[in-house]
Design brief:
Helix 8 packs antiparallel against helix 9. With 470 residues, the chain is α+β, with helices and mostly antiparallel strands. The chain is built from 9 helices and 12 strands. The longest helix is centred in the middle third of the chain and has 51 residues. The strands form 3 sheets. Strands 2-1-5-4-3 form a 5-stranded antiparallel β-sheet. A 5-stranded mixed β-sheet has the order 7-9-10-12-11.
Length: 470
């Protein structure tokens, strides 16, 4: 037998031993019941014979001569119908057995505890279980005959062998023990099989988890087997491993993308810095152009760093908003104004239509403007030359609905559900780090609003921002 440990050990100590104990109690109880039943049956049979005949059969033979009593005793034993079940003795008034239904002589000075008990009992009956001198186990019941002038007139003793009863009892006990042993073996075998069916997959999951911890994200648990909770656990574990693998790929892509995104402005800043250092103040026009590039790329770097910091704050749950009463459409106007030159430079048409009213909102003006800037940047970045961007706003009860629509490359149906996930980039040919939309979505959620994306591949994308207003 293999060493019992872990779950198997807990099952063995807490369940199997208890079951075995219950089965042993059941076996002992069953055997005890059978024992009591068999012995009570023998006793009841002996008592029934003693009760029926003591006061009737010998009524004509007691109180007379000894010879007449002996004749009655002989007739009684000869007429006794249950000789095959028990032996019956007739005892005279002096306590000496004078005749037996078996026909054998009765030895003298025989110990008869049941007769002694009957003499002392008010009921005139005594019962005894024990062994004869030859070792035979018997049960004896003695019933006293009616007294004559306050003197004993004799007794009748019924003796039944318990050897057959004990044999039957041992047979029943053996059957019960074998039956219980079969149950124990069955419980143990089924329990071990059940535990192994649990422990086996758990061991596999543990081994796979250790492999996963070493960095091998392609490892999976073989969950071929029964369709149960263990199979669900294996499936969930594999799904988790797949998600980790995808997250690792996305993380590596993110690191690569961010590195590239950082390298581009840094290269421009470094290049123009070296150029300006060489020409000094000899070429004011070139100097101004270089300073413009350095400032623009520095702002781009600053925006990327802030976006990364925002993402870190969101991940750690530490993003805090500075609430004040703001005008949502005023923040949208500022964002549109910031991008007007870029729209013109990129040859993208802007269709801007909002209500000529003030729309108050309690929120963080910088964060709201950040969302608008991100959405406008995406609308331009993923658009095409000669494309169009529409920004429309409308009041809907206690909500302001702002729709950003473009005629860009769009997003495929399979990628659309992932578009707001961290690090995800639907179009890797366009510069980006894959966290801007995730940050924007979180900011809108913190303001109690929603950000929904709808898109058709090669046709365009529509982003709908809904915010509660006062």
């Amino acid at each position: 037998m293999s060493k019992i440990s872990g779950i198997s050990k807990r099952w063995f100590t807490s369940t199997f031993i208890v079951i075995v104990g219950i089965i042993l109690i059941f076996a002992a109880t069953a055997i005890s019941i059978v024992y009591v039943y068999f012995y009570n049956y023998v006793e009841m049979t002996l008592n029934s014979h003693a009760s029926e005949l003591v006061n009737t059969y010998f009524s004509n033979y007691i109180g007379g001569s000894e010879e007449n009593f002996i004749v009655g005793a002989i007739n009684f034993t000869e007429d006794f119908s249950d000789k095959d079940m028990m032996d019956v003795w007739v005892i005279n008034k002096n306590g000496k057995p004078i005749v037996s239904s078996s026909g054998f002589d009765i030895e003298e000075d025989l110990d008869m505890p049941d007769y002694t008990l009957a003499l002392e009992s008010e009921s005139g009956k005594g019962i005894w279980k024990g062994r004869l001198k030859n070792g035979e186990k018997v049960m004896a019941v003695t019933a006293m005959l009616p007294k004559v002038q306050h003197e004993n007139s004799g007794a009748v003793r019924y003796i039944s062998s318990l050897e057959d009863v004990d044999t039957a009892l041992w047979t029943v006990a053996a059957i019960v023990i074998v039956f219980c042993a079969c149950i124990v073996v069955l419980v143990y075998a089924s329990g071990r099989f059940f535990i192994r069916s649990i422990v086996g997959p758990v061991v596999k999951i543990n081994a796979t988890a250790k492999t996963l911890a070493t960095g091998d994200l392609n490892v999976r648990v073989d969950n071929s087997g029964m369709r149960d909770e263990i199979d669900e656990l294996c499936t969930t574990f594999n799904d988790m491993a797949g998600a980790l693998s995808e997250a690792e790929i996305m993380k590596n892509d993110f690191i690569s993308t961010v590195s590239h995104e950082l390298r581009t402005p840094l290269t421009a800043i470094k290049g123009w810095g070296e150029t300006l250092a060489q020409i000094g103040s000899t070429d004011p026009e070139t100097t101004q152009k270089g300073m413009d590039v350095i400032i623009r790329e520095s702002q781009r770097l600053s925006g990327m760093v802030e976006e990364l910091l925002d993402f870190s704050r969101i991940q750690s749950g530490k993003m805090q908003l500075v609430y004040s009463k703001i005008d949502v459409l005023a923040e949208l106007d500022d964002a549109i104004l910031t991008f007007k030159e870029r729209f013109s430079r990129e040859n993208i048409e802007l269709d801007y239509s909002v209500p000529e009213v003030s729309v108050p909102l309690v929120g963080d003006s910088a964060r709201i403007r950040q969302v608008f800037v991100n959405l406008l940047d995406n609308a331009i970045k993923y658009n095409k030359k000669g494309g169009k961007v529409s920004v429309n706003a409308r009041l809907d009860g206690a909500k302001i609905v702002i729709v950003f629509a473009d005629t860009g490359c769009g997003i495929s149906r399979e990628n659309l559900p992932k578009i707001k996930e961290k690090f995800f980039r639907a179009n890797i040919s366009v510069h980006g780090n894959g966290i801007g939309l995730a940050v924007a979505d979180e900011i809108i959620k913190l303001h109690g609003g929603t950000l929904e994306v709808d898109s058709v591949l090669n046709e365009g994308t529509t982003v709908t921002v809904t915010l509660p207003v006062n």
